[in-house]
Design goal:
Order of helices and strands of chain C: HHHHHHHHH
Oligomer: heterotrimer
Number of strands of chain C: 0
CATH superfamily of chain C: MetI-like
Largest sheet of chain B: none
Number of domains of chain B: 1
Largest interface: B-C, 37 and 44 residues
Number of domains of chain C: 1
Number of helices of chain B: 8
CATH architecture of chain C: Orthogonal Bundle
CATH class of chain B: Mainly Alpha
Strand content of chain B: under 5%
Radius of gyration of chain B: 21 Å
CATH class of chain C: Mainly Alpha
Largest sheet of chain C: none
Distance between the termini of chain C: 60 Å
CATH topology of chain B: MetI-like fold
Shape of chain C: flat
Strand content of chain C: under 5%
Number of strands of chain B: 0
Shape of chain B: globular
Order of helices and strands of chain B: HHHHHHHH
Structural class of chain C: mainly alpha
CATH topology of chain C: MetI-like fold
Chains: A alpha/beta (246), B mainly alpha (226), C mainly alpha (248)
Helix content of chain B: over 70%
CATH architecture of chain B: Orthogonal Bundle
Structural class of chain B: mainly alpha
């Protein structure tokens, strides 16, 4: 993606309730941005607007060559370029791991079975799960499922990756195996937007941090700045950080 | 007990009764296949974003779930010959058998629609999101991700309903179609052994349905408590 | 289509001059509603009894209740009706009672037979719903009652059954609607309920569409009224802050 992701004056309502208030942000190519904030702050909603899983009522979002809001017919093509990883993994339980990975490349990108399988097996190896190609999601642990989910998103060769609380549903001992994969991805230069509570990951890997509360972006600064200098953070961010055990 | 039972009429009549049973089973099979297909169509209509399409589906289901199957049988006994005659441009006498097939398909489709719709809605939203996030269209998401899972969920309900439909096939009696019960009635009336034949028919239905329901229960027992 | 619609046919005098067709239809409606409500009452009483029995320890009670349910669920309603109307009197009753029945008002015998048949048939289904509702109650709820020193009867009556009912109102509504629909099977023994009357009117006036449409609308109306009544009941029974009454 030659151009970054641009979020411009985005507001969103669910019925009568406004959930996003005039949000602005720019994400450059290769940047890793962490979005944090208390629950209900709108961070998951915002990230779901980037790949149009949620529609926006005001403002616009530029994703590569496309601008949202866009007509429904264009959305699958836009989404094929943006990978997403969900809090609850969302692997397709009725397909085995290999099929989960090859299904969308064959259907959407029209790859042939051999090419899709090659790519899938390569990515499975990268996340350390080659032995699981024939297994079903129900037979995998949470951490394993999430790594497969990351591989599934990568099979589409996305230009950027969105992570919606990828480790929140995992038992503590499995969080690191997923964060390791994400760290590796960042090191390779993937553009990433992560909604997460893992401040250790944010401190180590993120280039920038966005802090959100009640649907508004309060802080948008480099991660060293966010974590080091207290005065540069908004009071809300300070309250939030002190309330979580990092 | 002051009735002299005489069961001798049954054995010679078995071939005739078997033909009636074949019809009953055929009616069940057609009803399941046609009813599920039409039911799926109706479910998709009800889930449509266009209100008039969803409305037609809702009205169809509402009406067919309010009326007795007997009334539906009479309706189609009246309508099917008329519609065929209108299409062919000439009055076509058509046996009651065909209108029975149509009646059962049309009637049970309403039930299947609701079951399939509930099954689809029970699949967590995250699954559609994940499919869409991969770039799949709504149609692809429905066909490859949602429906396969929904059908797995509703299979025990469909099988239980099939046993009930098998029993309901006996209602074609009201338009004198020769299903199993109709065949038993004919033999019973011919040989003046109506009581024995009805008891026999009841026993046959009982054995078949009992075995079938035990099999379904056994296979799907783990899901029973939801 | 060259069908000649005539909605005022309902007000026309009937073929025997004794009435108007609209009264035929309404008479059929009255029979349908009467039979259904009586059968439902029987089904509830017997069904609840059986459902509770299937969850109590005594093995004999459970076996008998299970046998009842299996018997009445696996034989078609029509066959059951023929049993009660044609077979049972001949086989079980002494000749004197049989002749008395034959001389009695046929409408009365038809109605009574249908009510008994439909009531017993539906009781099996109500039993299963009640059983499911009771078994949906978490074990802890029973234990809490026993721990307080309540007898089993008290626990069922004051704790388990009230909560079980709230769970099963939706499937019970479905069974209630089925009773109205199943009542139409009575036409096979000559009872002139709603479907039979509409068919009769169709035969005598050749205005079959009007007659069937009237019957269809009336059944639809019955279904709507019943659903709404049950929804209202469900709303009245709702416990603040409590889910579906199955588990906390």
């Amino acid at each position: 993606m030659s151009e970054p992701i641009v979020i411009e004056s985005v507001s969103k309502w669910y019925g009568e309730t406004q959930v996003l208030f005039d949000c602005n942000a720019r994400i450059a190519k290769g940047e890793v941005v962490v979005v944090c904030g208390p629950s209900g702050s709108g961070k998951s909603t915002l990230i779901k607007c980037i790949n149009a899983l949620e529609p926006i009522q005001r403002g616009r979002i530029v994703v590569g060559e496309h601008t949202l809001p866009a007509p429904a017919a264009q959305l699958p093509a836009i989404r094929a370029k943006v990978g997403m990883v969900f809090q609850h993994f969302e692997l397709f339980p009725h397909m085995d791991v290999l099929h989960n990975l090859t299904f969308a490349p064959m259907r959407v990108l029209k790859r042939d079975r051999a090419a899709a399988t090659d790519k899938a097996l390569g990515l499975l190896q990268r996340v350390g799960l080659s032995a699981f190609a024939g297994k079903f999601p129900g037979q995998l642990s949470g951490g394993q499922q999430q790594r497969v989910a990351i591989a599934r998103a990568l099979c589409m060769e996305p230009e950027c990756m969105l992570f919606d609380e990828p480790t929140s549903a995992l038992d503590p001992e499995m969080v690191n195996e997923v964060l390791d994969v994400m760290t590796g991805l960042a090191a390779e230069g993937m553009t990433m937007v992560c909604v997460t509570h893992e401040m250790g990951f944010a401190r180590k890997v993120a280039h920038r941090v966005l802090f959100m509360d009640e649907g508004k972006i309060f802080d948008d600064c480099a991660s060293e700045v966010f974590f080091a200098e207290r005065e540069s953070r908004s009071t809300r961010a300070q309250k939030f950080l002190s309330s979580i055990v990092a | 007990m002051n009735y002299a039972f005489d069961w001798s009429a049954i054995v010679p009549a078995l071939p005739f009764l078997a033909r009636g049973m074949v019809f009953s089973l055929a009616l069940l099979a057609v009803c399941l296949a046609g009813g599920m297909a039409l039911g799926l169509g109706l479910a998709l209509m009800r889930l449509s974003n266009r209100r008039w399409i969803a409305g037609i589906g809702a009205v169809y289901v509402s009406v067919f779930r309010s009326i007795p199957l007997v009334l539906a049988i009479f309706w189609f006994y009246l309508l099917v010959p008329m519609l065929i005659g209108a299409v062919r441009g000439e009055a076509t006498p058509i046996g009651p058998m065909y209108s029975a097939f149509v009646a059962f398909v049309a009637f049970e489709a309403a039930y299947f629609c609701e079951v399939i719709r509930a099954g689809m809605q029970s699949i967590p939203h995250g699954q559609s999101h994940a499919a869409q996030a991969l770039g799949l269209t709504r149609a692809q998401t429905l066909r490859h991700v949602i429906l396969p899972q929904a059908m797995r969920v509703v299979t025990p309900l469909i099988l239980s309903k099939a046993i009930i439909i098998f029993q309901d096939t006996s209602l074609v009696y009201v338009i004198s179609v020769s299903d199993f019960l109709g065949a038993a009635t004919q033999i019973g009336q011919r040989d003046s052994r109506l009581i024995e034949l009805y008891l026999f028919a009841g026993a046959v239905y009982f054995v078949m349905c009992f075995i079938a329901s035990r099999l379904v229960e056994h296979r799907y027992a783990r899901n029973a408590l939801t | 289509m060259n069908y000649d619609w005539n909605w005022s046919i309902f007000l026309a005098p009937t073929i025997d001059g004794a009435s108007r067709y609209v009264w035929w239809i309404l008479s059929g409606l009255a029979f349908t509603v009467f039979i259904s409500l009586c059968a439902w009452a029987i089904a509830l009483v017997i069904g609840i009894g059986l459902g509770v029995t299937r969850t109590l320890p005594p093995r004999l009670g459970r076996a008998l209740a299970t046998a009842y349910v299996e018997l009445f669920r696996n034989v078609p309603l029509l066959v059951q009706l023929f049993f009660w109307y044609y077979i049972a009197p001949v086989v079980f009753l002494p000749v004197s009672l049989q002749t008395a029945l034959n001389r009695a008002n046929p409408v009365a015998t038809q109605t009574l037979t249908m009510i008994v048949c439909l009531g017993l048939f539906t009781a099996a289904r109500v039993c299963e719903q009640v059983r499911a509702g009771i078994q949906a109650q978490p074990r802890g709820r029973f234990n809490a009652g026993y721990a307080l020193g309540l007898t089993r009867i008290h626990v069922y009556r004051f704790v388990i059954l009230p909560l079980a009912f709230r769970v099963i109102v939706p499937p019970l509504t479905s069974e209630f609607l089925n009773v109205f629909k199943n009542s139409a099977v009575a036409l096979t023994i000559g009872l002139l309920e709603l479907t039979a009357r509409s068919r009769q009117m169709g035969e005598f006036t050749a205005h079959v569409f009007e007659a069937f449409i009237a019957a269809t609308l009336l059944y639809f109306l019955i279904a709507q009224i019943t659903s709404h009544a049950m929804h209202a009941l469900e709303a009245r029974l709702r416990i603040p802050g409590h889910g579906l009454g199955g588990s906390a």
